[in-house]
Task: structure prediction
Amino acid sequence: MKKRNPRVLVVDDDSSLLEMMRMTLVKEGYNVQTASSASGARQALEESDYELVVSDIYLGDASAIDLLDEIQAANPEAPIILVTAQGTVETAAAASAAGVFDYLAKPFRIGQLVERVQAALSKHDESAEPSEPGPESMIVGNHPSIVEVYKAVARVAPVDVPVLIGGETGTGKELVARALHRFGVNPDGPFVAINCGAIPESLLESELFGHRRGSFTGAERDHKGAIESARNGTVLLDEVGELPSPMQVKLLRFLQEGEIRPIGSNSTVKVDARVVAATHRNLRAEAEAGTFREDFFYRLSAYEITLPPLRDRATDIPLLIEHFRTRTVGRLGIDTAAPPTKDVLKFLEDHHWPGNVRELENLVQRALIDHGSLDDAEGIRNLLSTFGPKTPTDSGGPSLGDDLTIEEVERLHIEAVLSRLGGNRTNAAAVLGIDRKSLYRKIGRLGIEIGSSKP
Result:
């Protein structure tokens, strides 16, 4: 049964939000004390004991992260809920390590606040969640959907289990993998990434497991594969959905036994490395349909993290633009670079972003290289239109705005990719996000001339 009138301390330097939270919790029967600064929170902690503390992270005169030790020293049993409009994976990890009960992204619903307060008071349990500032963040955004990703990373990073990261191309899956490594059990170990869809099938086993000298023509020396190179660290199997079934079987053995057999070796090698996999495909559905090994899928997906597409967190676009603008200005040595105007931001927030965060980063970089600023709405529109598929030769060919069918657009896109990659169909399939067999079928169906294209 819920304890009546438990004492709750609420800290926030936004006076209107502070009053809203106070009134909400008082209406729910809680005895609420408020503070609008870190110094006010310290004073409240000295004067009374609390059964729960709800605090914003940025408090003007300090960070709530800095207050965690004092809150826990004054009220060791009191759970802590942090709220923030500026979440990062770094502060999520810091809060998780400190045993914070939960972490809410502003703006949050009143019902969400009440539910989390009730949950925190019903069990004094350390279910760990995130927090705020720190060094420059690996992942940028404050939208609730990306904050959930921070929380997931904070929860699972210290647990040595395989993690499957899903999400559309360009959403930042490798960044999440690197965050899992950085906050994991062996952050000082190596991080090795291998793109399973970009390596020819004939070379894939050697790249993953290594080979011994003389094991095949051209093997002039021993070669250590990606998995052994990641010993005491993390190996990222990027685009794991592209792996052929025989390779899935061999990786399944590694996941089960923790050992590999390099090509040409008579013995196995024990390797302790965390496995993180990433894919843009729905492997769960493919496993159920029998097109991806079900046993391998369940080994890979001991924990799953799915990244939201940029169009679903468009409110993060201004933050991302500023992040990319600052980084690009420093790299290019540009003295000044005007930020985007409201018209530009509105246009960008309404864009569909098929290439997600990577597409936005490319746009910012291209705009700064070409124009030195981001305040030209017409220039930004023209640049964005050039990112779509075009004919390989083309400057005056049809654009996406012309009356092309979907099949014609697809054909132009595949031809452009093949041309850019010198006709290499394996690499083209990887760029297109499909397997080689699907690419061959499309080439035949769309009547694409492959000429002397490479396999």
